[in-house]
Structure formats: C-alpha cells, structure tokens
Amino acid sequence: MKSKRQYLLAAVVLVAVLVAAGFAVNSFMGFQERTQEPAVAAQQNPEGIAQIPLENAVVFRDTRATVDYGKVAWAPLDSPNGARTDTGLSCDRVYRTGGMLSCLSAQRGMNTSYDSTVYSIGGHLLAERALPGEPSRTRVSPTGMVGVTAFITGESYDFVGFSTETVIAVPGGTNYGNLQDFDILVGGTKLTAEDRNVWGVTFAKDAQTFYATAASGKQTWLVQGSLRDKRMTAIGENAECPSISPDGKLIAYKKRRADSDPAHWDIAVLDIAKKTETLYPLESGFDDQLEWLDADTLLFGQPREETPGDADIFSLDLVPGATPKMFIEHAWSPSIQR
C-alpha cells in the first residue's frame, strides 16, 4: 500500500508532466498560428522597405514569437543583435542588395500557394510570379537580376528524389528560364540525366556569370554558368548553395561529409584563381546558403530545434579552428547592405 508521501510525490510528478505538456502544446499552437496565418497578398508599396539603409545594415527575416513574426527586418551592422526595425513585409526567404529586394513567400490556406515578388528600394512592386512549391533560395545580382530556387517535390535537399526549379530573370525584362534546361557539362560531357537539378544561385559582378549547384543522383557539382551561352560547367565536386565573396575572388558553399546520415554539411571556401579549397568543419553542421559579412567572415542561419519556426544567424571567422558565434538571435535569411 502506498504511503501518503508516495501519493504526494506522484501528484507532483503528474502536475509537472501536465505543465510541460501544456507548454509544448501552447508553443506548437503558437507556431502554427504564426506560420499558417494567411500571408498578405503582394503589396504595391509595402511601408518600411524604403527606410532600409543602402549600406552598413543587415536585412533578415524576423523569427521572434511576436506580431512581427515572418516580417522583413533590418538592424545596423555595428549593433546587429540590438534594436531591429520591421518593414511590414512578410517573406519566408528574403534577399536585398543594390536596388532590389527579392521576397519568397507562402500564401497559406486550404490550397497553399507560393509566390516570388521583387521590390525596388523604394518599395514599389517590380515583378511577381507563382512558384511551383516551397520557397528555398534567392539572390539578387549587382546588375539587376534575380535568382530564385523553389522545390517542386520533396521537403528538403536531404530528401531522395526531390526536384527543384531555379529561374534567373530581370524584373520586367529577360527571363532566362529554368536553369535545368541549360547545357550542363561535367568533365566535358553533357549531363542528360532526367533527375538533374540546379539550385542555389550566386552572381558575379558582370551581367553574364553566375555560380550554382548542379546535381544528379547523390552527386553534386559546383558549376560556373554563362547566361549568354546558356551553359554551366562543373568546376568542383560535393558543393552546394554557393555564395561569391564581395571581391569576387572566393566562393563559399556547403560540403557534405561522406556517408553522413542524417546529412551533415561543413563550410568550404574555394579560391577561384588558385583552385584551392579550404574546409571549415562545424560540430553541428548547417543547412543554408551562406552570406558574406565581409572578406573574412561568413553568416548562416540555424533553426532552433527546441522551437519550431524559430532560428538564429551565426557568424564564422575564416581562420583555422574557428567556431560559430551568435550574430543575430531569432532571425533568418540575412543579406548585408554594403
């Protein structure tokens, strides 16, 4: 027969379990409310975009559990984790540089749809088009082009059999179409596999050259592309989601560890001229397209495992043995305004 003390202990444990369960349910429901609330249709002139500085600022997606969840925000570079200013524009992925801001968003409801919108620095809508699936990556070139990657099937790059669509276009101008339809040369041979995919565009400073990931099966390549020739040529293996440095001399990317399951990506940096690669192992790995803070520092987003829908932005100094440091809490999808 149980003593009074045992009954009391059991009651305390039960209450603790119920409180923990209640917290988890409330946390999840809060996340559901934030992420499944229908997104606002494309605004012609979203208030707040015009206030983003053209330099010395970082633009990102706000992931705090507030009414501004999912909104585009910015903070000064000298105090990135301090006060932030939200713009009112909702995006799942955002990138701003030069004269444009690219926003990928989900219109959630009974039939969820996905959109790509591009705005001028004054907040005027320049272009809008539907996406075939979940938004993934976007970049803006110094010469006025926008690259967008979206999933067609699958849930992530770790899902066997996923398919992507990556399009480069000039808002209101030339649309170069799906990069999968470009010629892809690997070792001088044209890649014709039906499962070929292209994702994660980054632009050089000219109006023709870009870099991206091409893939078939379990193999990925870093490719250099030419818009003029509609051709991509493999210049490296096991490289994903490239990002070119501000001076155009280096390319940073994800590099998957051999036979890692689940997938574990480290950071690698390629010196384009020297054709040498430097690896920066990460204890926890990451899954994002890198952004250059400056010539010696990279930024990337990392989801919070304990809080669905939340994330933080970390920085990594490009020195041997460096470990990631917190750059901005409760944030995602950074772009630096230089």
Q: In what order do the strands lie side by side in the largest sheet? A: 13-12-17-16-15-14
Q: How many angstroms separate the termini?
A: 73 Å
Low-confidence stretches: 1-40
Using only CA atoms, what is the Rg?
22 Å
Net shape: globular
Query: Helix tally?
Result: 1
Helix content: under 10%
How big a fraction of the residues is strand?
over 45%
Instruction: Work out the number of β strands.
Output: 26
Outline the biggest β-sheet: 6 strands, mixed
Class inferred from helices and paired strands = mainly beta
Order of helices and strands: HEEEEEEEEEEEEEEEEEEEEEEEEEE
Average the pLDDT over all residues and give the rounded result: 87
Describe the structure.
The structure is a single chain. With 338 residues, the chain is mainly beta. It contains one helix and 26 strands. The protein has one helix at residues 4-36; strands at 57-62, 71-76, 85-90, 93-97, 100-107, 113-120, 125-131, 135-140, 146-153, 163-169, 175-178, 183-186, 189-190, 197-203, 209-216, 219-226, 231-237, 240-244, 250-256, 265-271, 276-280, 291-294, 297-303, 311-317, 325-328, 331-337. The strands form six sheets. The protein has a six-stranded mixed sheet, with no helix packed on it. A four-stranded antiparallel sheet has the order 3-2-1-26, with no helix packed on it. It has a four-stranded antiparallel sheet with strand order 4-5-6-7, with no helix packed on it. A hairpin with a 5-residue loop joins strand 8 and strand 9. The chain starts with a helix and ends with a strand.
